[in-house]
Amino acid sequence: MRNFDEETITEAVLERVGQARDPRMKQISExxxxxxxxxxxxxxxxxxxxxxxxxxxxxxxxxxxxxxxxFILLSDVLGVSMLxxxxxxxxxxxxxxxTVLGPFYVEAAPEKALGANISDGIDGEPLIVTGSVSSLDxxxxxxxxxxxxxxxxxxxxxxxxxxETGGLxxxxxxxxxxxxxxxxxxxxxxxxxxxxxxxxxxxxxAQGRHPWRPAHVHFxxxxxxxxxxxxxxxxxxxxxxxxxVVFGVKDSLIRMFAARPAGVAPDGRILDAPFHHLNYxxxxxxx
Amino acid sequence: MRNFDEETITEAVLERVGQARDPRMKQISExxxxxxxxxxxxxxxxxxxxxxxxxxxxxxxxxxxxxxxxFILLSDVLGVSMLxxxxxxxxxxxxxxxTVLGPFYVEAAPEKALGANISDGIDGEPLIVTGSVSSLDxxxxxxxxxxxxxxxxxxxxxxxxxxETGGLxxxxxxxxxxxxxxxxxxxxxxxxxxxxxxxxxxxxxAQGRHPWRPAHVHFxxxxxxxxxxxxxxxxxxxxxxxxxVVFGVKDSLIRMFAARPAGVAPDGRILDAPFHHLNYxxxxxxx
Lengths: 287, 287
Prior knowledge:
By secondary structure, chain A is an alpha+beta fold. In chain A, about 25% of the residues lie in helices and about 25% in strands. In chain A, helix 1 packs antiparallel against helix 2 (about 25-45).
């Protein structure tokens, strides 16, 4: 096979990648070649534009380390993450809807006791989060693992400011109690721009887009016999609910982060200052 | 905009990227979203496969440094580089055909005098390369810049073995003489596998493909008033001419690396050992 032109090159590459032993690898490779060549044939990049594309991908890779995942950001802002989420998570009645994982999940979040304050002294408005985990028919799920993480009141995650925070904070892992309930204290997160000092931020700017996400708390909930749920709960009234840069908002995931006066909190504690209260009851789909 | 499903997400992202101020940025962004979402909708990746894709791109980025360009390799083995080349370089009569740049070009190659030996003591079979640079109507182009680079007899480039070679070698920049001619000595390059110890190598293996390229010498030729030419000259008879992993071979770019007995070489030198001779007369397209 030689002398390929603009049309024959695609068949040649398809023939080559079609040698894959694994049928799924063959399917993905062939689809990738067809769609990628279709894109190139449509936009007809100059040699300089191709080089710019190579530099963009290289720069995106170089921004990635154990605390920053620029390719996940890219997937998020191009709507790919939400598309993959939609493909994999149909919404059964009673099941909490899913949304993107985002780039700030950390596997080794510390396990804490129910009621713990996970803000570790970071400044902010107190927030108590309460909720429950149950099956689609409403049966409480005891011992579910509930991973939570969120930003501070300025919109930054712990991993973006490890020198200041001194370690992981505003993230923890809890277990639901015998009645499927959980609760913990933290500080109210704020809306924030995704990290936009890298290639993805430059792309957003060139596309005339803002980099903001509405305020939210991340949840990853796992329980034996159920599908893992990855989602957020968004703050009602946030100005970015309709223009989330990663297309992650669903109405069913919006709740009031309700302002409460000083006094008795839902867990019986007495607060001498105002606080906020977020409650969400999660429904898990059987595995 | 909220509550996107598998179908509505694409329109939402198109609306967002359609805000780009620059019309070319808008066009490329919209085409990217359509083709990328089309790919995702066709292969329906699981969450785990999406993560594998993110890891693949991240690993590809991490392999890139100032001596290794894994994203160019990826573009090459998926036929994208040759497709972009075909889009940008029509073949005017008398013009030498182009092929891929490849990942081993170095901008700062040393300028050398015609007749120099650029192998700098690297072991190998002596090869004299002769040729000329002319316009489409056969007029000699004097003072053209001729960048050349190639592998050694084991298939490795200087930049892959800098500890052993001690610097740049088997690459140089020449100027054509008053008659448009050039010539230099080096060693015969060999067929070689592209670097396949990274993510691209793993992908090739999973696709059931070998990583080999037929033996060749790279040329980049520039002259005022003419389009820059990026091409290779391939060794006739090489076993990989029909299965070049980057789809770069064109019949017009194949020449004998002709075996010659000891004796008088084309530049008048007398050799006491056999050598090889490659000649190619290049034609440049007006700018």
